[in-house]
Structures are given as C-alpha cells and as structure tokens.
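Tokens help. One example:
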Amino acid sequence: MPSSPAHRSPWLWGALLAASLAALTAASASSGDLDLGLGQIWALLIGGPASPDEALAAVLWEVRLPRLVTAILAGAALGLSGAIFQGLLLNPLADPYTLGVSSGAAFGASLVIVAGILCPAWAWLAEPWALTSGAFIVAGLTLAAVLALAQNEDGHLSPLNLILAGVMVSAILSAAISFIKYLSGDQVGAIVFWLLGSFQARTWTDAGLVLAFFLPALFTALWSAVDLNIMTLGAKSAETLGVNTKRARLRLLAAASLAAAAAVSVAGVIGFVGLVVPHLVRLAAGPDHRRLLPLSVLGGALLLLAADTMVRVVIPSPGEIPVGVLTALLAGPVFLVIFRRHRRELARD
C-alpha cells in the first residue's frame, strides 16, 4: 500500500515541531509573574548570567531557563522511551507509564530519598546521580518482571497481558511507595508533590543530569532504528535478515528504561506522554523508526513544555498544579480512544 503524502514528509513534520518548540520556548521564557519582552530575553541571553540587570538575569538564568530546559529534555526522554517500547513490543498501548516502568523508577528514586532521610551520614545519597541510578535500576527490574508476567506459555507477549501485568505491578509499587511516604515523616509533602510530577525549582544540575542519561539512550535508539524496523516483522524474520534480536532487544530496552528513569528522577511520575506522542507521530509520519524516533523526541518535548507552561502561566490557582496531573487529565481520554481502537483491530484479526 503506498504511503500517504504526509508519510513522505518527515522533514516537514520535523521543521514544524522544531519551530513550534522554539516559539513555545520563547513564549514560556517571557511569561510568568514577571513578564519579559523578547528583546529583553535576547539581551539577557547575550549578556549571560552576569548581565547588567542582575534581577532580570537571575529570573531568566536561574529560574526560568533551567526549568524550561529540564521540561524539554524530560519530555524528549519520555517520547523516545514510549516510541521504543511501542515498536519493540508491537503494542501501541505500551509506554513507561502503562508498563509500570515509571512507577518502578519512582519507587527506586523514593528509596534513595527516604534512605537519605533515615541515614543522613550517607552523604552520597544526596547526589543527583544516586537518585537517577536508583530509578534506573528499579525501572529495569520492573520491566523485567512485567515482561515475565506477560509471556504466554509459548514465550510470546500478549498485548492484553502486557497491560494487565503493568497495571498489577504498578499497583504493588504504588503500595510500596505509600509505605515509603509513611517512613519519610515530615518530608512526605515534598515526596508526594514530586511523585505527581513537577518542574518547580529545577536547576541546571537537573537539566544536565537528564541530558547525561538521555543522550546515550538517544544515540543507542537512533543507531538501532533499522534493526527496530526489521524486528517489527517478527523475531524469525529478523534473525533471517541478520539481526541479533536478543542483543538488539536488550540494547533497546535498556535505552528506553534509561530515558524513562532520567525523566522520572528529576520530574516525578508524568504519565501518557510516552503513549500519546509516538502514536500521533506514527499516524502523521508513518511507522519507520528512522523518522518516528526523532519526531517523537520533538513531540514529547513540545507536549511536556506546553503542559508545564500551562500549569505555570495559564491555569490560575493558589498553588501550582503538578504537571503530571494535567498530562493525565488531557492525555488520559486519548489513551482510552487508542485502547478502544486497538481492541477493535485485535477483534478483526
């Protein structure tokens, strides 16, 4: 079947997403309790953190830019992770949230947080890399558990079993996280807000941490994009065409888990970004992972930056609404539509 004209224009979609992301970044940087003009922002960017107007420079360089960059990188990581999971597992309902990977990463990060509270002498637990490492390790273990539970007797993965296993494991981890919140005592408020997803008070260190873990995952995914395309034909066909499916699957699962863990460790649990973005990109630009992966990165960055801008600037409230709550409210209905459509397709098959 010939591809549609939209599927033949990945460069157009990439340019549109990049231009939209740039425009939204400028609008978000200029908006807030203290509005900044685009001319002021340009002058402050050229002058750097040591610009003559120290107050405005501090607002831009120490408050807004770190938050914007962290939101962009976290959204890109979630978009990439969802695209990998959906392509690798041949399931449009797969993403870090529905597979329980986000809950696993949150549980690992919560363990590090409460350990730091209970054992203040272990100063290394306060290091940013400790939080991300704990999130990544438990996220990987969670994914392994979900895949083991979802396998049929013949070793194949059932799409329905995959989602059910993710829901069950997420429920268990949610109970474990509740116990951790109980142990955290007076720090429970900060942990609860973090688990709901937020970019408040993010710093350049947080942005650098996501970037350090996201870039290896991105390079690995792009390098394996052709193998991922071939693996969608089935394991036997891929082996016949020379793809080492075991190594490729392990490499891609590690990349997807690493990207998800990096986002969760700095922003908390933000659901449905990795589910909705790759699905919409696939509808617009086709299933080829050489274009799907980078476009999902741009789409995830755009969606999460838009959500963070809404909770920070657009939605009036006494306190800031966690961005994870907004993404769940907006993208949750889209998930139901995708689920219903996928169920009809399975029934026809």
Q: What stands out?
A: The first helix runs from residue 10 to 30.
